[in-house]
TrEMBL record:
The chain crosses the membrane at residues 7-26. This is Metallo-beta-lactamase domain-containing protein. Pfam families: Lactamase_B_2 (PF12706). One of its GO terms (cellular component) is cytoplasm. The keyword Transport does not apply. Keywords: Membrane, Transmembrane, Transmembrane helix.
Amino acid sequence: MKILKKVAVWLLSLTAVLVVVVWLVYQLPSFGGVSEGARLERLRQSRQFHGTRFENTPPYVSLLSFMREMKAYMGDEVREPQFEVPVVRLPAEQLGRPVAPGMRAWWLGHASVLLEIDGVRILTDPVLSKRASPFQFVGPARLHPAPLAIGDLKNVDAVVISHDHFDHLDMDTIQALARGGTHFYVGLGIGAHLERWEVPAAQIHEMDWWDSAQLRGVAIHCTPARHYSGRKRMDNSTLWASWLVKGPDHSAYFSGDTGYAGHFKEVRERLGAPQLAMIKIGAYGDTWLDIHMNPESAIQAHRDLGADILLPVHWGTFNLAYHAWEEPVVRAVKEAQVKGVQIVTPRPGEKLELGTPFVNQAWYLKPAR
């Protein structure tokens, strides 16, 4: 009995220590802030907020199965490139130049796109750190270098953030941009994270679905998505979103993370069809489709939007799912050909300019020896 009591005391002590350690870790700035006061009251006024959290309509029902997830995890797919990804490095002076008329985009990897539209420079979900993690010593590491270094960030007018997961909202990148005066357009509640990171309040613009803001003649529309949120746990404490950016002459849509649903058609009906659609195609699984659509659904989403050109994003940079590394883009290109969708597959850092022909290369396939 004495031994059992000693073991019980030891286990209780260990549990208490672990609880304290976890609590202390969660206090690190990288985990962000909490909505309080006026910010919390505004959250509660949102039509997407139900009880104590944001919810999809209809609600997301988890279909996760431990056995199915383990089977997928133990699959033999090659989940990292077996060759050096051909990254096109953006010269530091690129962001020192004035934004020329027209629209151009550089995919920087994952969901990060540098967009120049009608004189305004915008970044989507900028993550330029080595890891998509609250720590830079552990967590999913980049499968290729970023085409642009954090230290080279300057003259970026605006950032749009789709949600607060670590592969979409990176503290180090945000802080670097904030020091340069960048303005941040984010879903409800995400401003608490930015304030924790000492981003000036005047540079934070929290928006609900269908809210709009103006930036030097370019309209930034917060539009729906179907996902979830939380930096410490899946508590849906912040609002996920997609974004439509519309200038006098050009327009672009950014899906963020989302399952396939009717919001793509609704965006087109309310705001018109964009010229460029940056839509997620990667990080999906059979049990995730309600919040992480697959490549075929991405092609359908593009068609629902009525967009001219599809730039696939959210693939090829972090190992976050169970499918093969190149599978999302291979499936997306195949489906686009079947459905007559104009898809572009630039290398990370390669420029896409609307009005200029773009020649696709299957750079994501293993080079022949």
